[in-house]
Each structure stands twice: as structure tokens, then as C-alpha cells.
Design a protein that fits this description.
GIY-YIG endonuclease, 3-stranded antiparallel β-sheet, 4 helices, 3 strands
């Protein structure tokens, strides 16, 4: 059996959530269905990273570490390119999107 430490990103607020499970698919579904009270207000969630462990204690230790200040900084460094690419895509979308007020008829 495998154990997973996973990182989710809220598509609504850009919040990051770190969790632990032994069934990654089922846990992600629970988050997105609103069955987890701590993540319910920030749905929907996207899985952006996971780590696999053979030992449950190792996985729980890693989850606990990633939830610390130092662990969060490490995570930001490890996902630096992902966050940069995401920011660039959002800025590009905002630049090229047209609002209804900008559309002229006639």
C-alpha cells in the first residue's frame, strides 16, 4: 500500500492545501465535492503535486513539515516555474480578454 502527500491549488482563490491520504483519487474527489470542511469554501481544487511513500509515518512527517513555514518556502521554491507560468497565463488572459463594455455594435 502507498501513502501520499499531496498539494492542491484552489482554482477560485489560488490557495494551496497540503494533505495526506492513502487513496489520492478518492481524497481529491472529496475535496471537490465539499466533503472536507477545511477546503469546502475554496472549491474547486486542482492537484498540482504529490509524493508517494511506502511508510505511513514518513508520509505524515513530510505532510507536517510542508505545513511549517520552512516547508512552505521549500514548496514555493520547488514549484517556482509552475507558479511563474500560471501567473504569466493569467496576465495574458487578462490582457486579451474583452469585456462587454468594450464591445461596440454598429
Amino acid at each position: 500500500m502507498f501513502f501520499y502527500v499531496y498539494i492542491l491549488e484552489s482554482l477560485q482563490t489560488d490557495n494551496i492545501y497540503v494533505g495526506f491520504t492513502n487513496n489520492l483519487r478518492a481524497r481529491l474527489e472529496k475535496h471537490n465535492r465539499g466533503l472536507v470542511s477545511s477546503t469546502k469554501p475554496y472549491r474547486p481544487w486542482k492537484l498540482i503535486r504529490y509524493e508517494t511513500f511506502l511508510n505511513e509515518k514518513d508520509a505524515r512527517r513530510r505532510e507536517k513539515y510542508l505545513k511549517t513555514n520552512q516547508g512552505a518556502r521549500l514548496l514555493k521554491r520547488q514549484l517556482k516555474e509552475y507558479f511563474y507560468d500560471r501567473k504569466t497565463r493569467v496576465e495574458e488572459t487578462n490582457r486579451t480578454s474583452t469585456t462587454w463594455k468594450e464591445v461596440k455594435y454598429g
